Amino acid sequence: MAAAAEGLLHDLEHYENFLNIFNQHQQQVVERVNRKDPFQVYNEAEFRYRYRFSKQTTLELIDILSPTLARHTTRRDALPVHLQVLTALRFYAVGSFQILHGDDALMSQSSVSRVVLDVSTALATLRPRYIQFPRTPQEVLRVQQRFFDYSQFPGVIGAVDCTHVPIQNPGGEQAQRFINRKNTSSLNVQMICDCDGRILNVVARWPGGSHDSRIFRESAIKHQLEAERQDAKWLLGDSGYGCQPYVMTPLLQPANPAEQRYNTAHKRGRCIIERTFGQMKRRFPCLKGLRLKLETTMTTIVAVTVLWNISLERREPEIDGPEVLHEIPGDIRPLPGGRNVEGLIRRDNLIRQHFA
Questions:
Q1: Which of 231, 128, 147 is closest to 194 using CA atoms?
Q2: What is the pTM assigned to this prediction?
Q3: What is the separation of C-alpha 15 from the centre of its chain, rounded to a whole number of angstroms?
Q4: Contact 93, 284 (CB under 8 A)
Q5: 3-state SS of 110-160?
Q6: Is residue 335 classed as helix, strand or coil in its secondary structure?
Q7: What pLDDT is stored for residue 33 in this prediction?
Q8: How many percent of the chain have pLDDT more than 70?
């Protein structure tokens, strides 16, 4: 009898423990279903500061991404699309899984990581829609006119430069390639923007040790411009790119007033891309450092670029805060073979015809 009673008591204790665990799980499910709604919790200013977009623009983003992010599941605790988007936006605004986990303890760090990957992938698929290089004569003329009105430099269809995004070194045999001139690991990301800071082209796959001019030389946009170089249209780049028929670079030693005027107009037009980098990193601080898998990092950079263009399209107010300086200037020394005679002749003709 004593043994039977002891066994019964053990079974009761085991059953009570099971009930406690079950009740805790049920409470977690209820809490997850009833997650706080940031649209209700924060006013407009607090929401914009936290997520970098107005409520209206965020709702439009949710609507755009819903077909991709909707999870067809019967689970009661599945994360709704609007919370997936808000979680990713919050990550782009802080760049840390730890901070996000602290913001909402109901989500594990692994869950946040999965959500950021899903949303970034969905945003990256929108690249053809939001990141477009001018193609039609009307589009080209419009971009050129905006640059001319701003800088008095004719024929410009974009300003090109690279910016380093610090990353977690992926290791392996190629680890050294990601070490940049500051002896840190990064991706060297090439972007081209128009006069309004809208990104027209992005290349986010090169290790930090890659020279800017090599990234451009092997880009699809370079080959496109080379095929069209009979037209009077070009990019503005620093001296590291080397003067090309389709890339106008500054004169290192201007010798007369015409060349000085050329340099002044060139600097004013090219500085747009540097200013854009600073504004992007202020709106999306995750670009100051990403500790993700390499493929996810590349996808996230493209996703943030899409969001940047959406912010301009929706006329989102600029984010207040200290100016984010462009990192160490690009190497102004072009690689051997970067300059060519045709490019120098075209630049000389441009100076003589327009700036003399």
A1: 147
A2: 0.84
A3: 53
A4: yes
A5: HHHHHHHHHHHHHHHCCHHHHCCCCCCHHHHHHHHHHHHHHHCCCCEEEEE
A6: coil
A7: 41
A8: 79
Instruction: Evaluate whether 88 touches 115 at the Cβ level (below 8 Å).
Output: yes
Cα separation values, 355 from 140, 258, 265, 271, 347, Å: 22, 5, 9, 19, 11
What's the pLDDT at 110?
80
User: What is the C-alpha separation between 250 and 281, in angstroms, rounded?
Assistant: 26
DSSP state letter for 80: P
Give the end-to-end CA distance of the chain in Å, rounded to a whole number: 112
Domain ranges of the chain: 1-26, 35-124, 134-355
Q: Which two tokens stand for residue 225?
A: 């411009």
Edge to edge, the sheet with strand 199-207 lists 199-207, 186-193, 156-166, 234-236, 247-248
In this predicted model, what pLDDT tens digit does every residue of 140-173 receive, in sequence order?
A: 999 999 999 999 999 999 999 999 999 999 888 8
Q: Which residue has the tokens 């990403």?
A: 290
CA distance 26 to 308: 40
Distance CA 1, CA 20 (A): 29
What's the CA gap between 21 and 25, in Å, rounded? 6
Q: What is the rounded distance in angstroms from the CA atom of residue 350 to the CA atom of residue 233? A: 11
Instruction: Determine the Cα–Cα distance for residues 322 and 90; give it in Å rounded to an integer.
Output: 20
Residue whose C-alpha is closest to residue 106's, from 77, 75, 86: 77
CA 247-213-95 angle, to 5 degrees, is 110
